[in-house]
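User: Some background: our group keeps a shared notebook of sequences we're curious about, and every so often someone picks one and asks for a predicted structure to add to the entry. Today it's my turn. The entry only has the sequence so far, pasted here. Could you supply the structure so I can complete it?
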Amino acid sequence: VSKLCVCDLLVAQCDVNCCCDPDCSAAEFSLFTTCSVPIVTGDSRLCSQKAAVYSLDVEANPPERIFELTDQVNPSIFCIHATNYKQALSFRSPEMPTSENFDQLLKQFGRASFRAEPDSWKMNTDAQNPDANKTHRYEHGVPVQTVDAFLRLPSPVVSSWCSDANPAGFLVNQATKCTRSVSVEECSNVEAVSMLFYMNSSILVVPKSSQTVNITVRSVVVQSLNGMRTLLNGSDVLRLPMLWDELCINIVLGVSYHITYTDAGEIIEAAASFVLGAINKEALSIQQSFEISFTQVNTEPVPLSGNPGYVVGLPVRAGFRPQGYPFPMEIPFAEFCIQNTNKYGQLTVLQSTSSQDCLAARGARTPVLFGYNMISGCKLRITAAMKCQPLAQTLLDLLKGQSFPEYVASFGNSQAQDVLDWVPITQLHTSERRISNAFQSSCQIPVSLEIEVKWTKYGSLVNLQARIVNVTAQISTLPWKQLPSGRERTIPVMSSVVFTDISSPAEPGYKAWPTINVKLPYDFFFPFV
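Assistant: Of course. Here's the predicted structure to add to the notebook entry:
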């Protein structure tokens, strides 16, 4: 940029007020009143570039020109990180079809979608990255790498047609549907409808590693033309597309990947489930569906309760933050853990039993279902032999469970690593004061747990989503009174859950404009740098 000068118009002569003109001398610069071009840069779409800055020091005698070469950062989030594809920076005249090249152009651009990956795109990233020799591991959202490129999850881009350039992100569960152009005559030549296309490339255990994991076949389901599905017994059978009685059979209609990983960010297993179908001569395209899910080794997958908002009738998801967290790099994928006594990570309350005996109902829990007000309880028979402190701890465990969660997911699909998507549970304690004598104990026994879940309608008016914004758990206690020998008393122990909609109602006579206040997906900026 120090050699560029857009105001240098005269050959071998000094242009007036052109501070970047190399033909101007110091004496001529002293006569300038301003710099007509104060800054010269290259492509404004670059994220970072050099800038030549020109100015005049009018306080000097005589006035002098000041030249500085600085680094300029583009504030836009959509910018070019590296110009490794030089052809994209200039317009190139397209190749005109002729009788000689028509067949070649038709083969290259005749399909519904096409792409080109020049060799110049493949940069030597190790030379540019000073941390290339450090230990690599997969992190959330990073594309799952394979031997040749990355694990592809076809998806629609602009139209409904499938694009095979969509990478599968680590720990990002996805489900896509798209349309693929295929005919009976060419079905055996289309790679994207063959099982080999989705399992012939091994996955790298960690990025830039020589260790790989092969994609195994978990199950194969065959779908007939009328939609009937049959599960094949042998999952290791490779079925390729083929013509049979004016039909093309064994074409891929759906693929479901299941990736197993460790807490160190390593992929140790990859499996795929296929749905194969058939088409006749009338079919010009098929609809394909793709899924990918991730499960940590030695753990159970946690079902979602909505996407993104909660669905009425599904469990409220909950968890707790590990004690002493955060540790740098100690817990790489989750800041919240699921309860060890609740394998599905749900908010639970005491479950009523037919006997109504509190001491016999210990361990019986029922999940809190979103939108359902609930009440449950039991009866506790107190005898003179019972002591306050052990009984109070027993009742507290009965009401709250073995490991009461500290946080509740604000959305039905909140991920454990998204800290801001989890709402802390506010725990309150209230005591019922009664008239007592001087000899009455100050010990309190819990008798009820009241949970209030406040939620709101969130997002666009055309597709409102349920979002939890506040959760309160209130424990009520009674003062303990030791009974005389031979006496008994029975007290009720209750749990209740109330859902409160705190959405702001529309003002009467006022029609509000629809507002866009939606939750962006965590991969919204991918693949922009």
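Suggested note for the entry: The radius of gyration is 34 Å. Helices lie at 26-29, 102-109, 125-128, 388-400.
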